[in-house]
Amino acid sequence: MASTARSRKTKADVIGAGDFPCGPCEADGQVKLALGYCQFCHHYLCRTCFAYHHNLGKAHVLLDRDTMPRELQTPAHNLDPLLETCAEHKHKLLELYCKGHDEVCCVICATAKHKNCDYVYIPDFTDTLSSPPNEECSHVLKLMQALIGQLELVKGESSKRLKDMERQRRDFAMSVRKYRKEIDVVLEQLEKQVLSGMKQVIEINSSDLNTNIAKCDAALDNLRTTYKKAEIAMGADSVNTVFTQAKISQRQVQRNTVVLKDVRDTSVNVEVKFDENYDILKTLRKTKMFGKVSVTREPVRFETGSHDDVNLKSAKASGQNGPLKKADENKNEKVVSK
């Protein structure tokens, strides 16, 4: 590894007088002898890079070692260097222009996507323009400004729709709860109705039972009082008292025997229970859904600016190269105009 590192320190280690290093390899920190030259890239190429350039398309005109320039070629346009890098290949500059697709690209993109296209080196193409591309750039800036305005409008409208969706969610939930309460109110009314019926039955039968209990209490009081008096009379020596109490007691027995018979005849064993209305439960079980989600869709009508739509439409109607025209094309137009 150390010997390899030392071999890359100076060109003199591998490059002799009159030789040139490979441009791409030199950019990667390696020193390799150039055996060819690409007129499109303005780079001297080693054996590997030279073979690779055969696959880059017809724009890359290759010269072998015998025909390649013997003086160090300095790429033109140093006063106007290419600075923008490829979005896909960050380490490559955007240095090519594809006429067919009207877009700029790097060498890797040209090889992969534009191999069969008519593309040129950007500085070479801009040299053929009759006027700077400021007019086209200004036009594109207007289009971008209009597009930004439209996107901001759509974004704002979408944000409103998003808030409206949240409102609809709350309203939907409130509607469901309201409907549930309405059902609960109906069920509560039915519940109160059956409870009221049960209460009436209980009150009526409770009243009859309380009446019988009161009759029994009165009869028991009379009989117990009379029984004590008769028992006391039996211990006395008064025949008249015993006779009188015997007759009173006999009368009480007759009267309360009637009370006993009346209570027994009016006594009823009442059992109150709840019989469910299975139709309600059956109907609920048969119901497949509490309700349904109804959705209505319609296109959103966006309000547009006075010139935004015109600018956006003009982008579609404009040609690929916009106001850019080659100098020779302008000359041809002038000749025709004469």
Overview of this structure, please?
There is one protein chain. The chain is mainly alpha-helical. The protein has ten helices and six strands; from the N terminus they run ααββαβββαβαααααα. The protein has helices spanning 2-7, 23-27, 47-53, 107-113, 122-126, 134-234, 239-266, 278-286, 308-317, 327-337, and strands at residues 36-38, 43-45, 62-64, 96-98, 103-105, 119-121. A three-stranded antiparallel β-sheet has the order 2-1-3. A hairpin with a 4-residue loop joins strand 4 (96-98) and strand 5. The longest helix is centred in the middle third of the chain and has 101 residues, at 134-234. The radius of gyration is 56 Å and the shape is rod-shaped. The two termini are 71 Å apart.
